[in-house]
Amino acid sequence: MSTRYNAQALKEFASTLFASTGIASDRADTMAEVFLEADLMGFTTHGLNRVASNLQWLQSGVSRLAGEPHVLLDRGNILNWDAEFLPGPWVVSQAIDEALARVEQFGVVSITIRRSQHIACLAAYLPKILERNCVGILTCSTPAERTVAPQGSKTPLFSANPIAFGAPAGDYPLLFDISMSATAGGYVARAEREGKKLPHLYLKDSEGNPSDDPAAFANGGSILPVGGMDHGYKGAALSAMLEVLSMGLGGYGRADDVAQDDEANSVFLQVIDPQAFGDAQHFLRQTEALTALWSSCESDGDGEVRVPGKRAWGLRRQQLQQGVSLYPLIEGDLKALARTYGVPFPQPIG
């Protein structure tokens, strides 16, 4: 049985690390909560795994310790913010709070954010929206990043461009967080660090040949779009759509001088109140039926048919009750941070 840690203790540990940089304690708490949420649901490449990079950004000044986002536009149900390199997990959490405060009045609230420091796991922001019985859509792109090559090209153009979606649906929500690349950069980096090949040919080398070797990406290659070598035009089209929503509507991206932006994100988020369209129970009846029918589909193999959200939500419930099982590399990295910063690492609970 793997070692488990109390979720609240892990959150307090990460928050203490962030607060050591001089950032306000409430902002440190918010950042820690976002990273913990990712691990609770099993999105381990973009959860507590990102504590170290965020600490470095806060210490170096790449992330601003204080200040508020610059409001470029506010039309009630549509807002455009310039985060000016505030910590991504904090500024996106603020945007979601703002959207939830307005959604009862407007029904649908959409917010774009430019120059937000890296926002990590998009799914981590969904529980707060779902707890209000609302639908959440989040996507982001990275103007300074070019890692994904369009189909038929060996020149990387897009960033990974993830999208997360959550909708209430009974015992568990319909929920997913997927990149428009065949695999996320975090998995490529993890495989390289562990000296492993990727499970499939998710990459191209610098000559455009398919590869499963992380070294191919590190040496000038690219990640394939969703759809791979055969149907990658679909992933490329979706990548373009998400860059339009985030960079285009936000008014900052590929057309600008972004060389110094590093991992800073352009963000699009939308919160929808189903009650704005009619009786919320009618909405829930439909989403419950969808997930039930999906789950009852006959498997074409030995495994259970996978309904997006069921596994993540079940894992979240389990880990909140029984403790969090950390990915081994993450556990080691956090213990190293504990030694470096003199912050006690939580004791295991089992």
Question: Can you characterise this structure?
Answer:
The protein has 350 residues and is an alpha+beta fold. The strands form 3 sheets. It has a 7-stranded mixed β-sheet with strand order 2-3-4-11-5-6-7. Strand 3, helix 4 and strand 4 form a beta-alpha-beta unit. Helix 1 packs across helix 2. The longest helix has 23 residues. The radius of gyration is 20 Å and the shape is globular. The N and C termini lie close together (8 Å).
Instruction: Give the helix level as a range of percent.
Output: 40-55%
Task: From the 3D structure, determine the CATH topology of the domain at 183-223.
Answer: Wheat Germ Agglutinin (Isolectin 2), domain 1
Main beta sheet: strand number and arrangement?
7 strands, mixed
- CATH top level of the domain at 183-223 is Alpha Beta
Structural classification: alpha+beta
Silhouette: globular
CATH architecture of the domain at 183-223: 2-Layer Sandwich
Taking pLDDT < 50 over at least 5 consecutive residues as the criterion, the unreliable ranges are none
What proportion strand? Answer: 15-25%
Order of helices and strands: EHHHEEHEHEEEHEEHEHEHHEH
- The total strand number stands at 12
